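anyone seen this seq b4? input:
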Amino acid sequence: MRLFVGDDWAEQHHDVELMNASGRRPAKARLPEGVAGMTRLHAMIAEQVGDVGDEEVEVVVGIETDRGLWVQALPAAGYTALAVNPLQAARYRERLSVSGAKSDAADAHMLADMVRTDSHQLRTVTGDSPEAEAIKVVTRAHKTLIWERTRHAQRLRHALRVYFPAALQAFEDLAAADTLELLAKAPDPVSAAKLTIGQITAALKRARRRGVTGKAAAIQAALRTKYLGQPTAVTAAYAVTVGSAVAVLAVLGEQIKALQEQVEDHFGHHPAAEIVLSQPGLGSVLGARVLAEFGDAEGRPAAHRRPDRTHQQTEGGDHRRQHPPGPQGRGRRGLGARSRRPPRRRDLRGRGHR
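predicted toks r here
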């Protein structure tokens, strides 16, 4: 006997619907989050199962997340939990309704029907080891902080471009420790032009830069170059905002280093770390990410052992799909590749149309 459950979750409640193999809906309810709701879900399932033995019943639950205490409790109770990507759910919803209407109860029905008909296409939330779950927590937090640092660095770049373009010529990496130290000391063009070689050199040495003498001279020359500027009051206002952005970036840099140490520590204690590191191009951080997203559950089918696509993003926070290089090395079709658009025809009057 197979019983399918659609679980449309929210922060405070879960809309669930039970469905049998023939598509009939014997029960549905709104359950509270926590132990009380999980207890009621067990009771609803037990009422439908009746006297059938546990070994003869398979309960499949579809839910649009793979994290949280509720999700972890589903496999622990013996249910098969399937993580449904929100984009998959949106496309499947269009198959059932063309009006675009959306409600919690309707989404629960959609999820139940989805796992009934397409469970082989969905990823199973299996019982990864606590060590793998811990690696997943720290690696995702580490990636999130890297994305946040990139966003704040882009905001800092935008502010400097508006009132202090010399800084963009002087500093290559706005999130680097030496850059943040010098911008904190001199956040405006006038004070930056007064920085001495000794101050710049000291900041570069603390950041463990190479070729300090040449870099210090280049930075000083760039900061003393004449550029168009804003009025004094506007420049002072921008300098205040840049000071706060520099402070935020400094804290993010420290926390990224701290989390990286935690990532390496958790990953180093996992039994599969040596096997993962044996793969070409994988270091401790990237290897930890691979292990975290693929998991280490032994019973997971090969088709489901793939990372969550919602977390496959570049460090710059780009959510776009990355295509392999084309024949010319740029994008899918290559730089300069001819378009396959059909040629334009001309009518009797000589005017082109498609």
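Confidence is low (pLDDT under 50) at residues 301-343, 345-354. The two ends are 58 Å apart (CA to CA). kinda curious what u guys think
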